[in-house]
Amino acid sequence: MAENSDTPITATDDIGPDPSLLVVDDDGPFLRRLARAMETRGFTVDTAESVAEGIAKAKTNPPKYAVVDLRLGDGSGLDVIAAIRQRRDDTRIIMLTGYGNIATAVNAVKLGAVDYLAKPADADDIFAALTQRPGERVELPENPMSADRVRWEHIQRVYEMCDRNVSETARRLNMHRRTLQRILAKRAPK
């Protein structure tokens, strides 16, 4: 049977022969919406709502693709990335976070994530990041970071350098510990 050249390329053409996807996020409604959206795009989706559950699923059935939230109720999504990498080195991992900063993005990439998206990321952005071909360039942002964002990024970088120790970070930044805790609890400024 000859192929019709007018046949549209489906999302599954971008996924490859192994469509397994692990989505780890502690926001239940977001997790379910994203799982449904990825299933309609051809993935075989497994979900986890905690670091412990994500690590367990990564160990028993390491996925070809993964979308992992950075901050989970029982710890850091970076631990899930490390567990996936111990079992499978070809997994395309996307880190999601509502608390995006350069330091954690660098950390995620060092551990093996291929991209880092700030929430709210939609299913199209996540699908594009998961199926991006090696060497494809990402569009540069149109606007530079605001002064508030640059300050926030600096605080986050020092916080990561101090292994997420609030007291040590506050000392290095010459800042009161409670003030630092309030800053860290907020979302990143635009």
TrEMBL record:
Pfam families: Response_reg. The modification 4-aspartylphosphate is found at D69. It comes from the Bacteria. Residues 20-134 form the Response regulatory domain. The keyword tRNA-binding does not apply. Signal peptide: none annotated. Keywords: DNA-binding, Phosphoprotein, Transcription, Transcription regulation, Two-component regulatory system. This is ActR/PrrA/RegA family redox response regulator transcription factor. It comes from Shinella lacus.
